[in-house]
């Protein structure tokens, strides 16, 4: 045990002192926080005001193109060719041409511009024309469009978990889905990343012949176990630093942003010509109540998450899954002399891990299906699949059984890998096949 602890210290201290570790520990939180901050910052900058000339030969849409903060519409009363020439002579961004057709309602239009127009501009024009065409069709059928507008209702569905003793608990499917997929993805990513580091470390020591010196003082199993645990602790340290500093950066950014009342910023949308102040007030209050309800439901869902259970389960399944796969990666690294020779052995090891992430995308639709239960118990897939199920709530015996099987799976794969490792670590100058690995496994100590 003393020798194993020395190997763990060596692996840990050697790796945390590397420039690559220090750089990624600093850059990692910045990149993760940037994924959250950058889209918000870019959206706050705005896109600049676009000026669009509108040539409406049908006369049905001209008064519907109302200028906004981002788009300024200018009506044009010219022939098409004259309008094109005038547009080219101007500094405007686009010319919208709505032709006169023999049909009752035009369903096509042309957007002229000097360069490719943006998606938002095209979508905005299409949405305005679609709403007006639908309103005209309804009037032609004798249906008042305002009747349909008034009956449009946004439905809010509250999810409540009802236990056998009658206890009610509010849940948020959206929060659970996001949390489960995020936890499963991080475990999937970290196992791949740090498992590959174990394999590369074994290959480096083998090709440099350093292992021949180390093996004179420690047993092969102690060397393998020390390397696996040491690299795992490095990964856990880096991940915890990432979590803390990413959270600090995000909270710091949010604290610097001005608080805006988005609920009262936009007036209620309606096509009605005249609204009394009382009607405006009622509509505004109803929309604000719905928006507040959605926000409150999201915060309520976050408060209902059992974060101590989620975080402790994440730590356990990350370490268990990493130790299981790292033992297999170490065995592969001991059997080859370069990374190019690992391809034939990597596929059987990585398929279960990739499959677990694919299965996770289906588990969120039915976390308690037989498929979800079985894949969350099988050791090769349980680290990712069980992490996806936990935010939705799982029976305690499912969680306990998954943990027990994961520990048993780690012990078995470590024993299996050690029998290959003890022979392969000192084997040079030979291309190893699957049959060769089986013979190494059968060798007696």
What do you see in this structure?
The chain is an alpha/beta fold. The chain folds into two domains: about 50-150, D-Maltodextrin-Binding Protein, domain 2 (3-Layer(aba) Sandwich), CATH 3.40.190; about 170-245 and about 265-440, no CATH class. Helix content is about 65%, strand content about 5%. The protein has 16 helices and six strands. It has helices at about 1-15, 20-45, 80-90, 120-140, 145-150, 175-205, 210-215, 220-255, 260-265, 275-305, 305-335, 345-365, 370-375, 380-390, 395-425, 435-440; strands at about 50-55, 70-75, 95-100, 110, 160, 170. Strands 2-1-3-4 form a four-stranded mixed sheet, covered by helices on one side. A two-stranded antiparallel ribbon has the order 5-6. α6 (about 175-205) crosses α8 and α15 (about 395-425) packs across α16 (about 435-440). The longest helix has about 35 residues, at about 220-255. The two termini are about 20 Å apart. Residues about 260-275 and about 280-285 have low confidence and may be disordered.
